[in-house]
Specification:
There is one protein chain. By secondary structure, this protein is mainly β. It is 0% helix and 46% strand. It has no helices and eleven strands. The strands form three sheets. The chain has a five-stranded antiparallel beta sheet with strand order 3-4-11-6-9, with no helix packed on it. The chain has a four-stranded antiparallel beta sheet with strand order 5-10-7-8, with no helix packed on it. Strand 1 and strand 2 form a beta hairpin. The radius of gyration is 14 Å and the shape is globular.
């Protein structure tokens, strides 16, 4: 496993904001709140209809849901599967913490009517140990 944070792409119109993909139409409402030799904490906002775009998490991470929202996550085991990936709906509930194991190749789409807001914590040297995410069935 690699030991680098998930790649972020700088928003050219807002230099302090980032996107998870450089695909056209991807949300760029990501702020880096903290970054250290242990972990990186980002805050992301996906507005209704926005997507993260396909991206790979190479590190275990957790998310802390801050809003009520509906996301549909598309998961692939490799790039060849991206075009045929089946979405799985996830209901955000404020205060919910979910851990995720790497590697994870996915695209999240806000299919609801409210902003999906969450903190995401990526761990450089500490594997997650709480309950596994809804994506566990795909590994």
């Amino acid at each position: 496993m690699t030991s680098t944070f998930t790649t972020l792409f700088e928003d050219q119109n807002h230099p302090s904001m980032y996107a998870l993909s450089n695909e056209d139409g991807c949300a760029s409402h990501i702020e880096i709140l903290e970054s250290s030799d242990l972990a990186r904490v980002i805050k992301y906002v996906l507005k209704p209809g926005e997507k993260t775009g396909w991206h790979v998490h190479s590190l275990d991470f957790l998310t802390i849901q801050l809003s009520a929202a509906t996301l549909t996550n598309y998961i692939a085991h490799n790039r060849a599967e991206m075009a045929t990936a089946v979405g799985r709906e996830t209901q955000f509930k404020p205060g919910t913490v979910v851990t995720h194991r790497a590697p994870l190749l996915h695209n999240a789409v806000n299919t609801g009517t409210t902003d999906a807001i969450a903190y995401e914590v990526e761990f450089l040297h500490a594997p997650v140990s709480a309950r596994e995410s809804d994506f566990a069935h795909l590994h």
